[in-house]
Amino acid sequence: MKKNSKIRNYITTGCVVAGLLLPALHTARAEDAKASVSLTLSQFDNEFHSLRVTLARSMASLQSLKAAANENADLNKPYTEFSTAYSDLESQVTKVREHGTAAKARAKEHYEAWQKELTQMQNASLREKAQKRYTATSGEFEKINEKVSEAKEDFAPLAADLKDIYIYLKTDLSKEAVSSLSNTIWKMGIKARSVDGKLDDVCKQIQKVMKKMPQA
Question: What is the pTM of this model?
Answer without folding.
Answer: 0.77
